[in-house]
Amino acid sequence: MFPELKLDADRVNTLIFGAFPGIPEEAFPRITEAEPGRVHVVLPYRQGMLRPGNLVSGPTLMGHADTTAYALVLCHVGEELMAVTSSLVMNFLRGAKPGDVHAEGRLLRLGRRNAVCDIRLWTESPDRLAAQATVTYAIP
Questions:
Q1: pTM beyond 0.85, yes or no
Q2: Which of 15, 33, 119, 137 has its CA 20 to 30 A from that of 84?
Q3: 43 pLDDT exceeds 90?
Q4: Does residue 124 surpass a pLDDT of 90?
Q5: What's the average model confidence in pLDDT over 94-102?
Q6: What domains, with CATH codes, occur in the chain?
Q7: pLDDT category, 42, cuts 50, 70, 90?
Q8: How far is 136 from 110, CA to CA, in rounded Å?
Q9: Residue burial 32-67, b: 16+ Cβ < 10 Å; e: rest
């Protein structure tokens, strides 16, 4: 069982958006659901996400996995903006067709010094995963 949320989705959306002022609001990922041990984050589709072959690029998926893990950690530890990625292992499972990129993040472990997160990404449906990442965040 995971602890209750310290911050809700709206508060974390505001925190992350404020921490990265160079990203236009329409291109910014949004937490759409947050509950103990879990978040759902949507990255709105834009043409610049695509790579040759008309697929969402690997760097876009990796960045979204990392942002989702960051949001998940902040929901559970509070306004600790200096939490940093210490490990990100990405598995690309199939090409991600153009569309909003959804990410389901789940806490695997939340300790005093780090958090380990499982992130699953898709554009078509959660039954057709495009990628999966295991992301560890160091908590100062």
A1: yes
A2: 33
A3: yes
A4: yes
A5: 97
A6: 9-138 (3.10.129.10)
A7: very high
A8: 10
A9: eebeebbbbbbbebeeebbeeeebbeeebbbbbbbb
Nearest to 134 by CA among 101, 106, 113, 110: 106
CB-side neighbour CA atoms (13 Å) of 110:
20
The rounded distance, in Å, linking the Cα atoms of 63 and 34 is 19
Three-state secondary structure of 38-101: EEEEEECCCHHHEECCCEECHHHHHHHHHHHHHHHHHHHHCCCCCCEEEEEEEEECCCCCCCCE
Angle between helix 9-19 and 58-77 (nearest 10): 120
Residue 36 is encoded by which pair of tokens? 């103990």
φ, ψ (nearest 5 deg) of residue 92: -90, 125
Q: How far apart are CA 37 and CA 70, in angstroms?
A: 13
How is residue 105 written in tokens? 């993040």
- For residue 19, the surrounding DSSP H or E stretch is helix 9-19
With beta carbons less than 8 A apart as the criterion, state whether 82 and 138 touch: no
Alpha-carbon distances of 96 from 46, 58, 99, rounded to whole Å? 13, 9, 8
Distance CA 121, CA 23 (A): 21
